[in-house]
């Protein structure tokens, strides 16, 4: 396991230097951006979830006149869609690693390299009509405080939209290699970088606690079937995490091999982990909507 990042905002002064569980960071202890294929792995998931995200953002009214923050923008598929197709006035694509975003920069798409957990130190970013973060907050132990900080960045009437993973295990199948591998993955993510998918179901409550109105949530679970982008995403994720799954996750190598073979098999049929999206808006009427 890679060491914890230095100067972590939640690290107590004088804390021992040995990493505590969950003290590593996304992009350091796991999913390092310079690893070959990491962009493709993110794109496999984006291909599956982008249509749902676009539909939700469209239904919230995103379009000309909007200023948007895409937080943890990854490879920029949604940032680019907001700028080029939805017609937003300005999109700020923020990520701790912007190597895959730089080629997308243009008059309406600004690329910003920053640690989201330190967004309070970025007053020049301004305020937004949409703040969107997908598959990011689940990986950040500061998620609850971040919901408030992101809500503070909204213009009156502006929307905060959060999407993260939710697992829907089959209670009748606690022991299959597939289930053992998923359980080991969540355990490993929790222990190494502090990912918490149980907390995702609290997103609506966090949005309300941050003072937002019109809070709502929905869950989509695209089918996990042979030869799909979703299957490629999980297969690539598990291959990438192999040493961590075996050591931190306590998974038997044979179980991981069996689960990977199952993902590659014609018989694959699972309700895989899905995406919960929760949203709410800052009270007040937006000038953008002509009120
Ligand atoms: C799983 S990817 C999701 C990418 C994109 N949102 C999507 O759904 O396609 C998580 C992204 O969050 C970024 N990220 C993780 N921790 C971050 C932090 N503390 N500050 C800024 N970005 C971060 C990663 O670099 C990565 O691009």
From TrEMBL:
Residues 69-160 form the Methyltransferase type domain. Keywords: Methyltransferase, Plasmid, Transferase. InterPro entries: Methyltransf_12, SAM-dependent_MTases_sf. One of its GO terms (molecular function) is methyltransferase activity. The keyword ATP-binding does not apply. One of its GO terms (biological process) is methylation. It comes from the Bacteria. Residues 1-39 are annotated as: Disordered. This is Methyltransferase domain-containing protein.
